[in-house]
């Protein structure tokens, strides 16, 4: 059969233990006051797909275990390391003090377009995704090392956070892995 779809058993995916022991992509995801439990679960699932180092859940962002997070995460809350931190700004300041480069994913003056952005090799990078209505808090944007914007050509002003996360993580992952396979 030509172009036969593969069964899950043929996909050679990692077990939970293999995932936890695997070398991670040096990317941290910060969710700044994300409201939707389904979006949170989707971010976990995307982070699992690209072996993301860690997710920080901040402010009003809900935490596992929750049935609506689990429904979309499909078990990724068991693989991806995560931590709840109440204050996003304090977290950004702490990560920057540790040498992590922090970028808010937002539309702001002086933003770098994602397609032009080149992540620094051998450095951990954190990306901040914001609330579905208000975006990343201005104080967090101001404290970031920079801002990355996803180019959009249509009439709408933004993408859903889970879509934005998928676009950004795939782009950064591919840029990091193509240089260092």
From TrEMBL:
InterPro entries: Alpha/beta_knot_MTases, rRNA_MeTrfase_TrmH, SpoU_MeTrfase, tRNA_m1G_MTases_N. One of its GO terms (cellular component) is cytosol. This is RNA methyltransferase. Residues 27-170 form the tRNA/rRNA methyltransferase SpoU type domain. The keyword Transferase applies. The keyword Manganese does not apply. One of its GO terms (molecular function) is RNA binding. It comes from the Bacteria. Keywords: Methyltransferase, Transferase. GO terms for biological process: methylation; RNA processing.
